[in-house]
Amino acid sequence: MKDIDVLRKDFPILERKINGKPLIYFDNGASTQTPRCVVDEIERIYYTGKANVHRGVHTLSQEATAAMEATREKVRAYIGADSTEEIIFTRGTTESINLVASSYGQLLADGDEIIITTLEHHSNIVPWQLLQQKKNITIKVVPLDANGALDLESYRNMFTDRTRLVSVAQVSNVLGTVNPIAEMATIAHRHGAIVCVDGAQAIAHMKVDVKALGADFYAFSSHKMYGPTGVGVLYGRKELLNAMPPYQGGGEMIGHVSFGSTTWADLPYKFEAGTPDYVGIAALSKALDYLQSIGVENIAAHEHRLLRYATTQMSEIPGLRIFGTAPEKSAVISFLIGNAHHYDTGVLLDQLGIAVRTGHHCAQPLMDYLGVEGTVRASFALYNTEEEVDAFIVALRRVASMLS
Ligand code: 7TS
């Protein structure tokens, strides 16, 4: 990977002091920081290029449209999709999954079954529960083994001739578990079910190829991949998207509107009602360039080094418990120190300049399964360093002695 000290200069926020201490930003699972090239692009567009997309013959509008469509093509290539018709811009992973549940959900019938897992984020649980209020479907939940990996034997045995869809995170935002999506998709497809993948925690941390994964839908958020907030992507296989009804109605998603009947626009516009965050979408293009200039495989290797380094040292702290020890694990470490409350640990770490997330991480069913109310979570990104991990370990030892 490129020199980390040079890369860190792309992120001015990393020069901040928090409570008099240099910021150590370990809350990348919630949002990654944004490099200068992305912020510069947002500023450039607002100052010199802002115009709505698709709505004018004038030059600025044409430029804005071209920028949005160029990002669509870049996203397509980045995730290995066949066509830009399969790339829908949304507000984030949450909206992408809601789109699938609302729209594809309308094609389900009473008595149909879907499969999710114990480690899902609420955004891959609640949309399906909302669908359950409209359709009498059954939601089955794949259990975990002691390491926090999915129990694939149970998964295999869950399929019936009524199973229509599996919706699963590629990476757990709490345990870091990397799920064997390709294997799960093969099993699902054999039973005639389709697979929706929540890629929120994967997209910036490993190579994603939707076709190699066998994903029929793939959802992710720009703000977790060094891009702007307020932008997400839903990849969907063209034949599925074509069969699905629109998600929202409004401008830009129609073919022709009359009070008698209205027809829909072609893909992907059928699913993009209203003015999108066209500035954010255009700037996402710069985040993709940035990721590619470093190489996601290099980022993954760097983050795994940090994961191993931190895990080894954390394991030596008396009373510290790590949740999630799956063999395939991303750079996310959830933990508790003795009986200390996760919130107290988080506040003390913040005093020392270290940003971690605490709480249930929008995964309450997983917390119930783990038998805890919440955890503390450190999650790494490309700009984190071993020196930061060293400072984190010193801080954890201090917190442990204060709270025990
Ligand atoms: N799915 C997973 C696995 C996530 O980790 C998150 C956000 C989402 C979906 C929702 O993404 P959004 O961009 O639509 O909000 N996870 C977290 C987190 O772990 N801490 O803050 C947000």
Write up what this structure looks like.
The chain is 39% helix and 17% strand. It is an alpha/beta fold and 404 residues long. The protein has 14 helices and 17 strands. The mean pLDDT is 97. A hairpin with a 2-residue loop joins strand 1 (17-18) and strand 2 (21-22). The structure holds ligand 7TS.
Keywords:
single chain; 404 residues; alpha/beta; seven-stranded mixed sheet; four-stranded antiparallel sheet; 14 helices; globular; binds ligand 7TS
Overall shape: globular
Q: Between the first and last Cα atoms, what is the distance in angstroms?
A: 40 Å
| Uncertain parts | none
The share of residues in extended strands comes to: 15-25%
Strand order of the largest sheet: 4-10-9-8-7-5-6
Rg, nearest Å:
22 Å
- What fraction, in percent, of the residue positions are helical? 25-40%
Structure classification: alpha/beta
Give the strand tally: 17
Largest sheet: 7 strands, mixed
Mean pLDDT: 97
Supply the number of helical segments.
14
What bound compounds does this protein have? ligand 7TS
Q: What's the SSE blueprint?
A:
Blueprint: H1 4-8, E1 17-18, E2 21-22, E3 24-25, H2 36-48, H3 59-79, E4 87-90, H4 93-103, E5 113-117, H5 126-134, E6 138-142, H6 152-158, E7 163-169, H7 181-190, E8 194-198, H8 210-213, E9 217-221, E10 232-236, H9 238-243, E11 254-257, E12 262-264, H10 278-294, H11 296-315, E13 320-323, E14 332-337, H12 342-351, E15 354-355, E16 357-359, H13 364-370, E17 375-379, H14 386-403
Parallel strand pairs: 3-15, 5-6, 5-7, 7-8, 8-9
Antiparallel strand pairs: 1-2, 4-10, 9-10, 11-12, 13-14, 14-17, 16-17
Helix pairs in contact: 2-10, 3-10, 4-5, 11-14, 12-14
The chain binds ligand 7TS.
